[in-house]
Amino acid sequence: MTTTFNDTYEIRSIIGKGGMSTVYLAEHKRLHTHWAVKVVRKQQGARFDFLAESNILKRLQHPMLPRIVDIFEDAVNIYIVEDYVEGITLEELLKRQGRVEEPLARQWFRELCGVLGYLHTQRPNPIIYRDMKPSNIMLQPDGSLKLIDFGIAREYKEASSGDTTYIGTKGYAAPEQFGRAQTDARTDIYALGVTMYHLVTGKSPYEPPYQFVPVRQLDPALSRGMEYILNKCVQPEPAGRYQSVDELFYDLDHIYRFDKAWKRVRTVKRVRAAVIVVMLLASAGLMAAGRVVMAREKEDRYTELLDRASRLSASDYEECAAMLDEARGLFPGRPDADRRQTYALYLNGRWEECVEFGRRALEEHGADTQTRVSMAAAQFELGDYEQAAEGFDQGGELSVDNMRDYAVCLGRLGEIREAERVLDGLTEEGAHPDVTQYVQGEVYFAQKKYREAELAFLSALEQAESDGLIRRCYISLSDLYRDCAALMRVGQSPIENPATKSAELLSTAVVQEGLRYDSVLWEALGLAYFEAYHVDPAVPPDYLRYAADCFNRVIELGVTKEYLYANLYTIYYEMKDYGKAEEALAAYQERFPDSYMPHALRGMLLITMENEKPQVQRDFSAALTEYETAGDLIRSSDDTTYYQQLGSLIDSLRQNGWL
Predict the structure, then answer these.
(1) Residue 219 above 60 pLDDT?
(2) Alpha-carbon gap, residue 437 to 473, rounded angstroms
(3) Is 348 exposed, middle or buried (0-12, 13-18, 19+ CB in 10 A)?
(4) Are 27 and 12 in contact (CB under 8 A)?
């Protein structure tokens, strides 16, 4: 049996097997990260688009969906590399405990509505999942859910009269999936209803009686609201179901409305309202009452939009922003929507956007401490410690996390006494020792007490309870080792082989569930591998290639900065892998067409390649063309070091008669 895929992914075990594919747990041989590799046979007995899953997933970004990171093929199979999702399926959970309590089920119901809503609102075409069932929902160790297996998902297109593939899991699949009608959002609502029915009752759709009796007949403790909602979800005819996930979500958010007591109150209110209406029909007061009711409804809608946006702020930024836009339309002058959107941008790691959006919000609405603190938190992540410290200082009463980051800013700015004052405040607030140890490490770091700082950071890391603080400890340690690596070059580092220590530490960080998509850590790991390769003779030569893998990973995660491409070029050039070096320059030029740098670097690469040929075969004209192109693109603000280096080489070639 093959033990590796593409000479990159080493098989560890089989995760799952179906009629059309096998899924393996595999480890990246160089990065030591774990991935799920789905192997799909090209020759299938039925008509089936075996690339549908990858084509759909590769353009989606949602915390409840796995990502496609690589696709390759051979003569027999297609290989799709996806996030490896740890945990158990809800099917396994049901086997262990029989059913799920309603409060937890409601929470999951909302979360699954959220991810279906995200799929159904994709542009240009909505995506219909078509295979919702407990075995396709993973419960991760942190309690969050992830939807897996997009094998039969499809794009909904109005011009299509029916689906091209009639497939799904009987029992959970809607009736129209086995006929000639086209599946749409209501198809997913049906399957979600059956799935939740199974979760709250413990009754599988495969068990007799093969029908959906009202859930309270099976468990009278379930709420009337849950019974109503599930009954509406599983109607045989699509027209009888909820017509959109938004409708379903609204009823979940207002499930109390179905309680008998609430209905009695509503009936009394209706009777009273009817009497009042009759009495005031001839009165001008009716108009005023109408305005009051409309104003109250408008206020209720505004509050509802803000609340729903807040719930989505960390999981679905686009939907969150759409709700906040609607809220602004109701009350344009209020700052609430802008305040929440600034915070949502911060939560989603869109730090530069957060700062810019927050500035505009402050200009429009005036001083707002919550907006300013969100901006400060983003500026802290961007390394703008001066602005971040100013923002935290203006933020009034700060949370423990904000105080922690404020102290770090002060330390990085050399304001040791102020940093120690904030540390004392954290201690007085009863902050967990992991936080105070971390801040103490930053104070030591600012004082250049590198050994003490290292011990404090490692102690904080060992005790850390949150992903956020774990991440901060890794970043601070990488910064510490980076500074010591610079000192090592002049023989003054108090820590032995700091770059190697950094590489070993960060390589364990980036495989952790909460950190594997952190571009900052991947970049720091790439720099550590590169530095360790050049200063520590004990490390393997593969460290240089590992550095390239890390920088490629940063780019895969959506970071597009010029120096990343320049770093990749430098590594491949040093490895004498000129083909890869040219690929890096081509990507650099495509991403930054107005930059002179890829042309200057390519000019030097071409000269190196020509010099390795016999003299009679050398032709430096292409290098000259790149030099001239680079010169045309230079702006007054550019650092022209590389252009000047290439210019010196061109002058030398001219003097020796090669040009």
Answers:
(1) yes
(2) 10
(3) buried
(4) yes
Of 427, 492, 443, which Cα lies nearest the Cα of 457? 443
pLDDT, tens digit (0-9, with 9 covering 90-100), for 515-555: 888 999 999 999 999 999 999 999 999 999 999 999 999 99
- Cβ neighbours of residue 529 closer than 8 Å, sequence gap 6 or more: 503, 543, 544, 546, 547, 550
The answer to whether 372 and 362 have CB atoms below 8 angstroms apart is yes
- From 70, 131, 434, 479, the catalytic residue: 131
Q: Are strands 88-89 and 137-139 parallel, antiparallel or unpaired?
A: antiparallel
Dihedral over Cα of 86, 91, 95, 98: its sign: positive
Amino acid, single-letter form, for residue 146 = K
| Sign of the four-CA dihedral 376, 378, 381, 387 | negative
Q: What angle do CA 563, 569, 574 make, to 5 degrees?
A: 125
CA distances from 242 to 67, 189, 199, 239, 495 (A): 29, 7, 20, 8, 63
Q: Is 41 exposed, middle or buried (0-12, 13-18, 19+ CB in 10 A)?
A: middle
- E strand or H helix at 64, and its extent? none
Q: Is residue 189 within 8 Å of residue 221, measured between CB atoms?
A: no
**What pairs with residue 82 in β-bridges?**
36, 68
Contact 524, 506 (CB under 8 A): yes
Q: Is 149 a catalytic residue?
A: no
* CA nearest to 493, candidates 450, 528, 452, 444: 450
